[in-house]
Amino acid sequence: MSVPDGAVVGDAGFHGPPGEAGAVEVGYTVVAGFRRQGYARAMLRELLVRAAAEPGVRTVRATIRSDNEASLATIAGFGFTRVGEKGDESEGGSLVFEVPADAIRAA
């Protein structure tokens, strides 16, 4: 499927600047009609490259709802490790993943 010029396929960015410990959190979403075409992986890859280029970033974090199988699959292969949980399962808890910026630079 080709994308018309100027079409918005999704949104990606950082939740804010790095915290005191050098952690930055990424977020991304893809418009329903463009899912399962590699856009989320491409967005995540660019976010990781950008984060790793910043001297103050030591860790990149992603928080993903435990039932979001597509996003969980998207981070696979990028070196993320599950480090915790937020919320509880009755509220649709989220899983927290991190990858060291050094691991991104080395890739």
Q: Specify Rg, calculated over alpha carbons.
A: 14 Å
Largest sheet: 5 strands, mixed
Overall pLDDT confidence = 90
How would you sum up the global shape?
A: globular
What is the helical fraction, as a range of percent? 25-40%
Strand order of the largest sheet: 1-2-3-5-4
H/E element order: EEHEHEEH
Q: Helix tally?
A: 3
**How far apart are the first and last residues' alpha carbons, in Å?**
30 Å
Strand content: 25-35%
Count the beta strands: 5
- How would you classify the helix and strand content by structural class? alpha+beta
Low-pLDDT runs of 5+ residues are none
Give structural attributes.
107 residues; alpha+beta; 31% strand
Descriptive overview:
The protein is α+β, with helices and mostly antiparallel strands and 107 residues long. It is built from three helices and five strands. A five-stranded mixed beta sheet has the order 1-2-3-5-4. Helix 1 (39-53) links the parallel strand 2 (23-30) and strand 3 (59-65). The longest helix has 15 residues, at 39-53. It starts with 9 loop residues before the first strand and ends with a helix.
Outline of the structure:
This protein has 107 residues and is of the alpha+beta class.
Topology:
Elements: E1 10-14, E2 23-30, H1 39-53, E3 59-65, H2 69-75, E4 81-86, E5 94-100, H3 101-106
